[in-house]
């Protein structure tokens, strides 16, 4: 089902005003280091023609209904806002961006059905979201000749050299940052509780790997409990954890199952235990809904988009200021649901500006692997290669503490001590 960007006149006027106020620095800042100066210049050049150019359609398959609807709905809003912004800046060399957004219903079979139709029609790339179970099924359709599939799941791990790419920060780095922060905070006895689904297990496995790093040596897991995502209570599991007297607790799950743990902690008087959660829970609206059961100290490993631009390294401030401007103009708040699709979308827009609107899947893949260097986006500085189809690393991660209304940085890069944090490049 094709999505039309039918905006009201006040909203249209607001975007025209935004176009005057927000300079092309959004795309200029994201075009990389000085070594890419020519590409950066081309990335913001618009073509002047006597007749309107044909629209360029960007195809996206999102979880607009079902279990992934929270992320999918945010992604739809984000793509609509930034497509409007790109169009206000001249589109892709004069070609306005048109969005075609389909609903995978958070179901692998529906996702594959929708994607198969697009692949058969020869699209050079598509945006694939929003949860891993549906996304993984679509990723498998990326053959030896494409198309480029940008996986918007927060836990995507694209294979090196494949036609699959992912925005954001790998959970490997996110959970390792938690382990590093636990170490510098003096937490040597920790507990873990996770759901048994893919996202819960991914977070658990990545934290376990992070605890094996020398930077996190000396931390012992004194209790580990699991539960089904649809469980209505985890009191039994939390009672075991409470008896082990951990200094900190790591919760690996997202959404409703996360709230189940928080309510259980409150009922058992465990809200004083410093609690770490996966970044998929960094949705401000959801956290505000959990306000009555939020632990006194709730931490998450997060990318730049969750923090004030002025608290970030200097090479991220310009882009993040412009990013925040567009997000706020759309009446939203920066979060994973916005950052993942926007980063993928803007990277692909720049690729098309460089290669032209007739770029093939192979050309797009080569561009992503060879030209995306030191590109500031909402999740950090992207540096892709044949072996790295995400592009960010641990230096793009900070530990954020929830204040009740926003997140504040409480660590250095990669979860290190805030006292030794770098104020320069994080690339």
Please provide a written account of the structure.
The chain is α/β, with parallel strands linked by helices. It folds into two domains: 9-169 and 311-395, Rossmann fold; 171-301 and 397-420, Response regulator (Rossmann fold, 3-Layer(aba) Sandwich). It has helices spanning 9-21, 25-29, 37-43, 69-88, 108-120, 132-139, 171-184, 198-211, 235-243, 256-267, 284-289, 314-329, 336-355, 361-370; strands at residues 56-62, 97-103, 125-128, 148-151, 164-165, 189-195, 220-227, 248-252, 275-277, 298-302, 375-377, 380-382, 398-402, 407-409. A seven-stranded mixed β-sheet has the order 7-6-8-9-10-13-14, with helices on both faces. Strand 13 and strand 14 form a beta hairpin.
List the helices and strands and how they pair.
Elements: H1 9-21, H2 25-29, H3 37-43, E1 56-62, H4 69-88, E2 97-103, H5 108-120, E3 125-128, H6 132-139, E4 148-151, E5 164-165, H7 171-184, E6 189-195, H8 198-211, E7 220-227, H9 235-243, E8 248-252, H10 256-267, E9 275-277, H11 284-289, E10 298-302, H12 314-329, H13 336-355, H14 361-370, E11 375-377, E12 380-382, E13 398-402, E14 407-409
Parallel strand pairs: 1-2, 1-3, 3-4, 4-5, 6-7, 6-8, 8-9, 9-10
Antiparallel strand pairs: 10-13, 11-12, 13-14
